[in-house]
Design brief:
Length: 142
Amino acid sequence: MAQKMTDEEWRAFVSNGTRTGKLSTVRADGSPHVAPIWFLLNGDELVFNTGKDTVKGRNLARDGRIALCVDDDRPPFHFVVLNGRARLSEDLDEVRRWATRIAARYMGEDRAEEYGARNGVPGELLVRVSVDQVVAVKDLAA
């Protein structure tokens, strides 16, 4: 039977392994745009980077509202949806530092610097999202 996750459970779930998030942003016409992202949870903030000129980068600069879904598609199925508002930074030191930390999660410590250097360049944004709402459910098929 499906159950709500505790605060500790959803934080562990979204931070476990290399699960990607499916990020939804708002297009200029109000329609949704969804894209997979690498991310980290840092306290009550979701942190990721993206290109300033990507669809999500342009959307976030215009309207910072986001929803992020992280799920486990294997039985008994679990998911977390985070909602919040993004703040953008182009500070290269900050962009590179976080790009390196994010890369360590997804590519491993041995390749983190390589990916941090690749993603911590002019034209990249650091995105911080204050998480305002969480929907977290476990054991959907139990």
